[in-house]
Amino acid sequence: MSGPEHPQRRPAILTVDDDPAVSRAVARDLRRHYGERYRIVRAESGADALDTLKELKLRGETVAVFVADYRMPHMSGIEFLEKAMDVFPYAKRVLLTAYADTHAAIDAINVVDLDHYLLKPWDPPEEKLYPVIDGLLEEWRAVGDRGMPYTKVIGHRYSERSWQVRQFLARNEYSFRSVNADDPKGKQLLDAAGLDGSRLPVVITEKGDCLVEPTDVELAELLGLSTSPQLEMYDLAVIGGGPAGLAAAVYGASEGLKTVLIEKATTGGQAGRSSKIENYLGFPTGVSGAELTTSARRQAERFGAEVITTQEAGKLEINGVGAAHSIRLNEEDTVGARAIILATGVDYRQLEIAGCWEDPDNPANNYIGRGVYYGASVSDNSECAGEDVYIVGGANSAGQAAMYMSETAKSVTMVIRGPSLEAGMSQYLVDRVTKTPNIKIRTCTQVVDTGATDGHLSEIVLLDKQTGQRETVRCDRMCCFIGATPRTEWLEEAGIARDDHGFILSGPDLQNVVGWTLDRPPHHLETSVPGVFVAGDVRSESAKRVAAAVGEGSMAVMLVHRYLAEA
Ligand SMILES: Cc1cc2nc3c(=O)[nH]c(=O)nc-3n(C[C@H](O)[C@H](O)[C@H](O)COP(=O)(O)OP(=O)(O)OC[C@H]3O[C@@H](n4cnc5c(N)ncnc54)[C@H](O)[C@@H]3O)c2cc1C
């Protein structure tokens, strides 16, 4: 994943001594010899040193060596090293002792797994200090932990919210590392943040700030994205931040319209979930959906479009031809616009079998995000390393996901109802999928039941439609790509005409629809409400392709100009 650069910071050598003169002297000698490659950090008490360690941990930095004085009043060097080991277990441990304390130092070898005790004074350092530290650093470099100078998401592998948070960050091309809360590294990070792990996920930013169970709005703010409108009135409001909406925002803003784009989740739409789009013009080796759409968002913003994420348009109030329409976002925010482009795309259809769909009467009773996934594959394919993955569906999106996951998964099985892949997938993908050794294809097959272990999916039941035989197979992850439906019910009240499947009618398709009130016919992408246009997958009979959505988003802006000139 690309994203902002995070230069690897220098590992630290931390010294702690309550005698300021000794503390300065150790730090000075260490800095002289190691200052270029290591950061020398000095503390004058065990408690201070521990606070510093926690800060370093949260910021994703690492410590190579501790040098602690044995005799300190409130916390001895041994006590300090014992606690420090919990935070940086790989750091090498050196105890600084006077001759009289040699016995205590020898005992400490067992208590804190001491690597060395160093007698004071250590002059000349070339003979007594540097050879010791050189040896320890060499050992540390061979096995020591690497810093994680990235934002960390600490959560559980099978937690829906942890998965959603990772998706949100990945789809915005934000660099992060995922850490399991049960792993030692996860526990250390939580300890360092003073958290007991009862509320997950936790996001620890590069600067060391902690977000516990963050909402999408908090995540958007972390990423510097706008979450509420700056103005009350715009020339153009675009609803939906997939390729169609992003294209409309780029063209609207670049052509001088005061433009706002409203997105309920994060920009990118379905395209943002694609691991690799290979048929979009201008990218001969393909482009990840997140990269394409994050660049488009930046492009729209550069032209002055306001892009608001994590806000769902929930109601449209139509105020007559020429007048501004209102879009209700939430209890507080309403946005007015002289023209509107609906680019709300489609949402994934869910498998209607136990554990796989959101039953409104029992919303928690499913494994979605805990082994069952819709539309999204994985934010990073290392997530499915060693797993047995099943992909349900046979369209291009399913093929892309299979290819991406097969790089790390133990096995990937595509389950399709039809007799062959060719019926639903582009030939270039069929060729790749069939040549990949760890991808299996099961045609004429359907998933008919699921089973779980500890609350997450662990098996599925397959039905061979030709023989009628059922087979229960182990399944760590099932990703479903079984078609999509528009979510346009909220537009009914505003009188936006839709076809029998909920897709929005426009232009010539409105011929037989009652309700059009103007003398002129509707413009090509204009809906049954003058001044409200539609673009992309949500339009009835649209092509369901990135390029088509981008083309329609751009073209809708041209028609908006025409409408505004007439109004
Ligand atoms: C995994 C995958 C891989 C694909 N690969 C390819 C490919 O390789 N080539 C290709 O050409 N096509 C591909 N497609 C199809 C392509 O992505 C879609 O055709 C395209 O994204 C449609 O764009 P859109 O803007 O019309 O809608 P969408 O991409 O569906 O975007 C709609 C957006 O509107 C938002 N929204 C919905 N309702 C509201 C609301 N009320 N308020 C605010 N926001 C709302 C949604 O959150 C969403 O972000 C793929 C699709 C998927 C899922």
Describe the structure.
The chain folds into 4 domains: 12-143, Rossmann fold (3-Layer(aba) Sandwich); 151-222, Glutaredoxin; 233-347 and 485-566, FAD/NAD(P)-binding domain, CATH 3.50.50.60; 363-482, FAD/NAD(P)-binding domain, CATH 3.50.50.60. Strands 10, 11, 12, 13, 14, 15 and 26 form a 7-stranded mixed β-sheet that branches. The chain has a 5-stranded parallel β-sheet with strand order 2-1-3-4-5, with helices on both faces. It has helices spanning 20-34, 46-58, 77-87, 102-111, 125-128, 130-143, 160-171, 184-192, 216-222, 243-254, 289-302, 396-406, 427-435, 546-566; strands at 12-16, 39-43, 63-69, 92-97, 116-119, 151-155, 176-180, 202-204, 210-212, 233-239, 259-262, 306-308, 315-317, 325-328, 334-342, 347-348, 372-374, 388-392, 411-415, 439-442, 445-453, 456-464, 470-474, 477-480, 484-485, 532-534. 29% of the residues lie in helices and 22% in strands. The chain is of the alpha/beta class and 567 residues long. Flavin-adenine dinucleotide binds next to helix 10, helix 12 and helix 14.
Mean pLDDT across residues: 91
The number of distinct β-strands equals: 26
Outline the low-pLDDT stretches: 1-7
Distance from N terminus to C terminus (CA atoms, Å) equals: 46 Å
CATH superfamily of the largest domain: FAD/NAD(P)-binding domain
CATH topology of the largest domain: FAD/NAD(P)-binding domain
Number of helices: 14
Structural class: alpha/beta
Which range does the strand content fall in? 15-25%
Bound molecules: flavin-adenine dinucleotide
Biggest beta sheet attributes? 7 strands, mixed
Whole-number tally of structural domains? 4
The gyration radius over C-alpha positions equals 30 Å
Query: Can you identify the CATH class of the largest domain?
Result: Alpha Beta
Shape: elongated
Q: Please bin the fraction of helical residues.
A: 25-40%
- Oligomer type: single chain
What is the correct CATH architecture of the largest domain?
3-Layer(bba) Sandwich
Pfam family, one: Pyr_redox_2
InterPro entries: CheY-like_superfamily, FAD/NAD-bd_sf, FAD/NAD-binding_dom, Ferredoxin-NADP_redctase_2, Sig_transdc_resp-reg_receiver
GO molecular function, one term: thioredoxin-disulfide reductase (NADPH) activity
Modified residues (4-aspartylphosphate): 69
